[in-house]
């Protein structure tokens, strides 16, 4: 992503040459007002992009015998007052392998359970842990995205009971089938969660009471 901040068209400076030979940029108003050698600071505010605000302080010096010519400031003169902050989407997007690890931890699935849910071999999970930048097949990415979406739908305190409810001794066959279905469906998972909500909430409250 790239962008720039263009100065307003009427943002002009006057270039003044002082008796000492040094050049300074002063505003047109300052020149026409016939200022003496007294220094003044002109603060120019520029609005960049979506509300990006920057300011520049320009020192001005003008002598009584100063001759002026109106010039537009060079772009290099404005760089320091207009530097947008750019965000790279790659910096904020979690890698598929990292997302897999986060979701597995959130639900509390062991490697055997998790590999059956996202349809990979257990050794793949070990490889991802060592090399999170590994390319992941789009089919697996799609399953992870569904599970990520689903994880934001459920109560956090219920998540840890999914392994027991789907793979435990008294597993719910319908939930297990939904999680391991070839075409993982967000709607199907939500339906299963709504159906089992009371059971999951009861498991959580019992655990909390024992603690």
What would you say about this model in short?
The protein is built from eleven helices and five strands; from the N terminus they run ββαβββαααααααααα. The protein is α+β, with helices and mostly antiparallel strands and 211 residues long. The strands form two sheets. It has a three-stranded antiparallel beta sheet with strand order 2-1-5. A two-stranded antiparallel ribbon has the order 3-4.
Write up this protein.
By secondary structure, the chain is α+β, with helices and mostly antiparallel strands. The protein folds into two domains: 13-89, no CATH class; 94-210, no CATH class. The chain contains eleven helices and five strands, in the order E-E-H-E-E-E-H-H-H-H-H-H-H-H-H-H. It has helices at residues 28-32, 75-78, 89-92, 96-107, 111-118, 122-130, 138-151, 156-159, 162-167, 173-180, 186-210; strands spanning 13-17, 23-26, 40-48, 52-60, 68-71. The strands form two sheets. A three-stranded antiparallel sheet has the order 2-1-5. A two-stranded antiparallel sheet has the order 3-4. Strand 3 and strand 4 form a beta hairpin. The longest helix has 25 residues, at 186-210. The protein starts with 12 loop residues before the first strand and ends with a helix. Mean pLDDT is 72; it is low at 1-68 and 70-92.
């Amino acid at each position: 992503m790239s962008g720039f901040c263009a100065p307003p068209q009427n943002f002009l400076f006057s270039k003044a040459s002082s008796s000492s030979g040094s050049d300074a940029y002063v505003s047109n108003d300052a020149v026409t007002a016939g200022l003496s050698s007294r220094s003044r600071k002109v603060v120019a505010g520029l609005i960049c992009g979506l509300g990006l605000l920057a300011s520049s302080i320009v020192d001005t010096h003008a002598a009584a015998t100063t001759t002026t010519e109106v010039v537009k400031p060079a772009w290099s003169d404005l760089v320091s007052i207009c530097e947008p902050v750019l965000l790279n989407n790659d910096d904020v997007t979690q890698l598929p392998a990292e997302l897999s690890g986060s979701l597995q931890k959130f639900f509390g699935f062991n490697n055997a359970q998790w590999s059956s849910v996202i349809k990979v071999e257990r050794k793949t999970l070990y490889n991802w842990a060592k090399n999170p930048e590994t390319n992941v097949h789009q089919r697996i990415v799609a399953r992870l995205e569904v599970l990520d979406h689903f994880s934001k739908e459920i109560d956090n305190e219920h998540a840890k009971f999914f392994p027991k409810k789907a793979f435990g001794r008294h597993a719910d066959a319908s939930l297990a089938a939904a999680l391991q279905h070839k075409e993982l469906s967000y709607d199907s998972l939500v339906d299963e969660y709504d159906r089992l909500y009371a059971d999951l909430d009861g498991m959580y409250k019992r655990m909390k009471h024992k603690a």
